[in-house]
Amino acid sequence: MSEIWFRTGEATVLAAEGQYTDAMPEVLIGSTRGPVGQAFASMLGQVQGHTRMFVVRDLNQLVRPSTIMTTKVTIHTAEYAELLGGVVQAATGDAIVDCVIEGILPKDGLDELCMIITIWLDERCGSHEDLDRKDLYRTNYEATKLAIGRAMRGEPTIDELIANRKTVKHYALEGVIEY
User: Fold this and answer.
1) Residues 63-109: pLDDT tens digits?
2) Which residue from 17, 33, 179 is spatially nearest to 111, judged by alpha carbons?
3) Cβ–Cβ < 8 Å for 82, 33
4) H-helix or E-strand containing 79?
5) Cα dihedral 100, 104, 106, 111 in deg (nearest 10)
6) How far is CA 178 from CA 124, 164, 166, 174, in A?
7) Which residues contact 165 (CB under 8 A, 6 or more apart)?
8) pLDDT at 1 (0 to 100)
9) Spatial contact of 68 and 41, defined as CB atoms under 8 Å apart
10) Contacting residues for 92 by C-beta, under 8 A, at least 6 apart
11) What is the rounded distance in angstroms from the CA atom of residue 160 to the CA atom of residue 130?
């Protein structure tokens, strides 16, 4: 395997109707000997409200490459923390293992890589009475696979970004600017 030094990727998968289960992971992949490895090791301490944890598929099932996940939203409730360390963590772990199975991540040299994934989990999920955990799994699984694949393929390319500069705009700019 040629060394993977520093790759980034992101993806968004939208929730089913009536759910707050949108998933928007951001992924950093790189060598354990490089800047990603340094950042990975530095994240092992905790930050109040932004729990950092290894990604496991289940008890005693730490994924490879070693991956740390953390939240983009401050954790305020036990219900939120349970979803993050339960359904979301399991979906993320399954997606990582499937990326290895499908050849998106290289099996050879896997222990020389590490990943950091920032997770978006809407804080309304923790108190949503009709939360669809299957949809929460689906969005996080699909988005994690997309983000890892995009990181490994270097997508979007600069040529794609240039080509769609005036046709794609951030959703928050609707009615703010016109192209």
Assistant:
1) 999 999 999 988 888 998 899 999 999 999 999 999 999 999 999 99
2) 33
3) no
4) helix 78-83
5) -60
6) 32, 14, 9, 8
7) none
8) 52
9) no
10) 25, 55, 67, 69, 117, 119, 140, 141, 144
11) 39
**8 Å CB contact between 26 and 118:** yes
Backbone region of residue 45 per phi and psi (left: phi > 0; alpha: psi in -120 to 50; beta: other values): beta
What is the model's pLDDT at position 126?
87
What are the tokens at 58? 């289940």
Cβ neighbours of residue 128 closer than 8 Å, sequence gap 6 or more = 19, 20
Give the whole-angstrom CA distance, residue 53 versus residue 126: 19
- Six-digit token string for 2: 């040629």
Closest to 54 in 3D by CA, of 117, 147, 130:
117
Residue recorded with tokens 């060394």: 3
Q: Which long-range contacts (CB under 8 A, 24 or more apart) does 74-82 make?
A: 74/49, 74/50, 74/123, 75/49, 75/50, 75/51, 76/49, 76/123, 76/126, 77/126, 77/127, 79/126, 79/127, 80/121, 80/123, 80/125, 80/126, 81/51, 82/126
Q: Are 94 and 49 in contact (CB under 8 A)?
A: no
Q: What does the pLDDT look like over 9-55, one tens digit per residue?
A: 999 999 999 899 999 999 999 999 999 999 999 998 777 777 899 99
* 4/104 Cα distance (integer angstroms): 13
